[in-house]
Amino acid sequence: MAKKKPKKIKKITNILIIAIIVLAVIFLISLIKISVTANAIKEQKIEKQKEMEVEKEWLMDNCECIARDIIRCMDGFEFIDDLCRNTTLNTYSLRLLSCSKYDCTGEIRELTKEYYWD
């Protein structure tokens, strides 16, 4: 009877070790899946920003601006409380009005704030 107890303990220990290994593998797979998904979303966002920048540049080069309704700030400044602020330097700047509507030889094209804000 004394020999059965150590075998039982060894069996339970082996089962616990296997369970811990399985849980660790599941956890690692979950982390990898989350990382891959996050990278895919980031790549999609970067690609969309590039496409929007190309479209905006094309409109600026080939069409006439007919409305300036998008408020934006210079680089390094953020639009906070109706002002352009650089919180690092504790300075303010004038707001800029960007073109929101273009006339491309009769075809009217509109840009939204997402073309100017990240």
Q: Residue-averaged pLDDT, rounded? A: 86
Q: What's the gyration radius in Å?
A: 29 Å
Structural class per helix/strand content? alpha+beta
* DSSP strand count: 6
| Biggest beta-sheet profile | 3 strands, antiparallel
Termini separation comes to 72 Å
**Secondary structure tally, helices:** 1
Task: Sum up the overall morphology in one term.
Answer: elongated
For the largest sheet, list the strands in their spatial order. 1-5-6
How would you characterize the overall build of this protein?
It is a single chain. By secondary structure, this protein is of the alpha+beta class. It folds into two domains: 62 residues; 48 residues, no CATH class. Helix content is 50%, strand content 27%. It is built from one helix and six strands. The strands form two sheets. The chain has a three-stranded antiparallel sheet with strand order 1-5-6. The longest helix has 59 residues. The termini are far apart. The model has no long low-confidence stretch (mean pLDDT 86).
Question: What is the topological layout?
Answer:
Blueprint (H helix, E strand, L loop, with lengths): L3 H59 L1 E9 L5 E3 L2 E4 L4 E3 L2 E9 L2 E4 L8
Antiparallel strand pairs: 1-5, 2-3, 3-4, 5-6
